[in-house]
Write a structure and sequence with these properties.
The chain is mainly alpha-helical. Helix content is about 70%, strand content about 5%. The chain is flat, with a radius of gyration of 21 Å. The protein starts with 5 loop residues before the first strand and ends with a helix.
């Protein structure tokens, strides 16, 4: 096996995703193993790990599988550096920019939720501090 390929167990450990989750993303076409060993084991590259990390980061922000696929397709095409017309390049950049703006909005929402949770925890600590000891 080449040093540049990893089996699914190593990928799972590196991405903090379960084997089942990685297989699910394979079944949905979001990430495909770059190769298979002679024994049929899935083999992944650093690029595959990078794709899984994008997916892992998108999931808790509420992106759907279709949105993940759309972003990965756009970034794949931009990163490939192939022959893109100026209009196609601009459209792909705008699509990625839209995702970045959505992430910024969702991060702001999460910060608000976290601040409310911290206030709530402080309120509970206050009740505990004032509660009579029995």
């Amino acid at each position: 096996m080449s040093d540049e390929h990893m089996q699914i167990g190593e990928v799972a450990a590196r991405t903090d995703l379960s084997l089942r989750t990685i297989r699910h993303y394979e079944d949905t076409g979001l990430v495909l193993p770059s190769a298979r060993s002679q024994g049929g084991f899935r083999l992944y590259t650093e690029a595959d790990v990078g794709r899984l990390m994008v997916i892992r980061r998108m999931k808790p922000l509420g992106f759907s599988l279709e949105e993940m696929r759309e972003l990965l397709t756009a970034t794949d095409r931009l990163d490939a550096g192939g022959q893109l017309s100026a209009a196609e390049h601009a459209e792909l950049v705008e699509r990625v920019r839209g995702f970045e703006e959505t992430v910024q909005l969702r991060m702001a929402e999460l910060r608000t939720q976290l601040a409310r949770a911290e206030e709530f925890a402080a309120t509970l600590r206050g009740h505990l501090t004032r509660a009579p000891v029995r």
